[in-house]
Amino acid sequence: MSLWHAAAAADLRDISVELIDDRYNLSSEVYFAATPENMYRVLSDYDLFVQFTSAFIETRNLPPDESGRPGFYTRMEGCVLMFCKSFERRGHLLLEQNREIVAIADPAISDFKYCRERWHLAREGDGTVLTYTFEMEPDFWVPPVIGPYLIKRTLREDGRDAIDRIEALAQGRKPKPVGTP
Q1: 2 is a domain residue
Q2: 5 is a domain residue
Q3: Residue 160, exposed/middle/buried by CB under 10 A (0-12, 13-18, 19+)?
Q4: Which domain holds residue 67?
């Protein structure tokens, strides 16, 4: 028997990625066979994010800022054709226990002019419906024409890959290693 459970009940109900002006907007709705409390525990802990997808190279919780808001850090890497880039986000979290997590990157110390993520958790039966929105405007050069297409494709594919791993963590199981189909 493998170290991780192969069957997961996560169900990607909807996903869209759009580029409007210079901002990328991803939205999705996913059902997870895990309680909102367990989903909140996983999604509010940036120390776990490297287990979601290979896009995250380094992630961690940071101490609260001067306003007492929990902090976060992520470093991601991506390539567009032969152009590879490492980019960082640092910011703070707005938390509503077991209902909502909002991550706002500080543009002064991030590689984004604007970056905001929101996870909204709603109980459905024995599980949770997660409504996720991610809006970002990079503060780095994106190759014209092919760049936006590849960023949109990467956001969509990485999101799909992360779902089963997030659910496994919320269920207290060991997720499949990142990079495993």
Answers
A1: no
A2: no
A3: middle
A4: 11-170
Beta strands per DSSP E along the chain: 11-20, 23-32, 56-62, 71-80, 83-96, 100-105, 112-124, 127-138
- pTM for the full predicted model: 0.87
Any domain includes 175? no
Count of C-beta atoms within a 10 Å radius of residue 129:
18
Residues found in the chain: 181
* Residue at 134 is within a domain: yes
Residue 110 to residue 87: CA distance in whole angstroms: 8
Find the CATH number of the domain harbouring 44. Answer: 3.30.530.20
What are the backbone dihedrals phi and psi of residue 32, each rounded to the nearest 5 degrees, phi first? Answer: -120, 140
List, in sequence order, every residue forming a beta bridge with 86; answer none if it has no partner. Answer: 77
The predicted-structure confidence for 34-63, as pLDDT tens digits, reads as follows 999 999 999 999 999 999 988 899 999 999
